[in-house]
Amino acid sequence: MTNKSPYLLYSDGKGNIFEDTSLYATGRSGWEAYEVPAEDWIELPEGGSLYELPGRKGIGVDVRTGEMRLCDKGWAVAAFIPPAHTGLYLAAYETTPGAPTLPLFCYTAAGWLNEKFYVPAVRIEKDIRQECAGYDDNVIQGGVKHIMSAYPNNRLLRHLSQNCCLTYHCPAARNYFSGRWECPVPTSPACNANCVGCISFQPAEENIVSTQDRLTFKPTAEEIVEFTVPHLQTAPFPIVSFGQGCEGEPLLMWETIRESIIEMRKHTSNGSININTNGSKPGAVKALCEAGLNSIRVSTNSAQKHIYERYYRPNNYEFEDIVESLKVVRGYGGWTSINYFVFPGMTDSVEEYEALRKLIRETGLRMIQWRNFNIDPDWYLGKIGIHETGEIMGIRQLMELIKEEFPELKYGYFNPPMERIKGNFEADFAHY
Ligand code: SF4
């Protein structure tokens, strides 16, 4: 919280960032720029970074006149806020003709005040599993060496170590090779959706690239079980998570995943077995629940069918299927979350609020993971055909209203371990 609005930031296009003390920073929601309430600004959390936005001019409030106007001193600046925090406003700017599409990161508003960077955001998750200060490269390198010498022929571990951990610096892979918490298990080279902002595959005709390459082989159940059983048996707060950013849709590999879960549970009842998925195949989800699946996280940009399908561009499934998958897991007593891509101006529209209430009621949803949407805002709205955005509630107010109506519903950013699912969810997990 600040006692006054931070100043707008701009860049010289060479990576140098400056404050413009003639303008207060604003925030974007949908296609509009707004003054950000003072209570919404927090210091940029550790692990956050700043981006200069080529071909874009920042929108600010003139400190003398109170009028909104463009900053002509340089390019606009946005913040990439670290996991566990949800952005309340996007960076506000005007895009000049010919400006390049921005890569697949989140673009939260940012400002400068009292020698510090500020962002409009909330810490939504207590769990510290992806705090950048919590990673020790020596421990990670040692873990990679130890595990790869134990399982030299395991293709999946080779992918997780060489690509995910050492190249993409995937936080989940780095935790696995540190012997703790959530272990990622990608399995699928293919997908039955065509998301506009897919992070593992972008068509050649698009002028942005995916942030990681999609898995190119189908692991066997033996390769999966070989390293997941020891993880469930030995890691603190263990989770095994199918469905990662470096693959397509895991439900297309449900038979292999089912076989793996059955085998894992023969060896240990420890931990949580979770699947991050687009939720497209409720029948497959049912088979995985019968095999012992504990938790599901269904990704979505919206609780509205038309907004969802314009973004996911599904092959042979519909929005109703993802709703059914959540109901199936709930029916088996499993933990259900949505991986909710937060886009100010869309997520907090009145229509979305009503649809979200309906989704929570219909599915008995247990948790919302309020994730920042990693996508160029203009490109996203253009691709899903949204040329003007209506009345907005504000992301913070949306969160408060939903919590008021559904007090048992949990908020966070990460899949919870069994200790939180079965135990005191709100317990202080600061010191794992
Ligand atoms: S569901 Fe996942 S893998 Fe499939 S297109 Fe969408 S983002 Fe990509």
What is the CATH superfamily label of the largest domain?
Aldolase class I
Report the biggest beta sheet as strand number plus sense, adding barrel if it closes. Answer: 11 strands, antiparallel
CATH class call of the largest domain = Alpha Beta
Q: What percent strand?
A: 15-25%
| Low-confidence residue ranges | none
What form results from the Cα inertia axes? globular
Name the structural class. Answer: alpha/beta
CATH topology of the largest domain: TIM Barrel
Detailed description of the structure:
- The protein is an alpha/beta fold.
- It folds into 2 domains: 7-123, no CATH class; 133-422, Alpha-Beta Barrel (TIM Barrel), CATH 3.20.20.70.
- It has 12 helices and 21 strands.
- The protein has helices spanning 137-150, 155-165, 171-176, 221-234, 254-267, 282-291, 305-312, 319-331, 350-363, 377-383, 395-405, 418-422; strands at residues 7-11, 17-25, 27-29, 32-34, 41-43, 49-53, 56-62, 68-70, 75-80, 85-87, 90-91, 93-95, 111-113, 116-123, 182-185, 239-242, 272-277, 295-300, 335-342, 367-372, 410-412.
- Strands 1, 2, 5, 6, 7, 8, 9, 10, 12, 13 and 14 form an 11-stranded antiparallel β-sheet that branches. A 7-stranded parallel β-sheet has the order 15-16-17-18-19-20-21. Strands 4-3-11 form a 3-stranded antiparallel β-sheet, with no helix packed on it.
- A hairpin with a 2-residue loop joins strand 13 and strand 14.
- The chain starts with 6 loop residues before the first strand and ends in a 10-residue tail after the last helix.
- Residues 191, 193-195, 198-201, 248-249, 278 line the site of iron/sulfur cluster.
- The site of iron/sulfur cluster (SF4) has 11 residues, from loops.
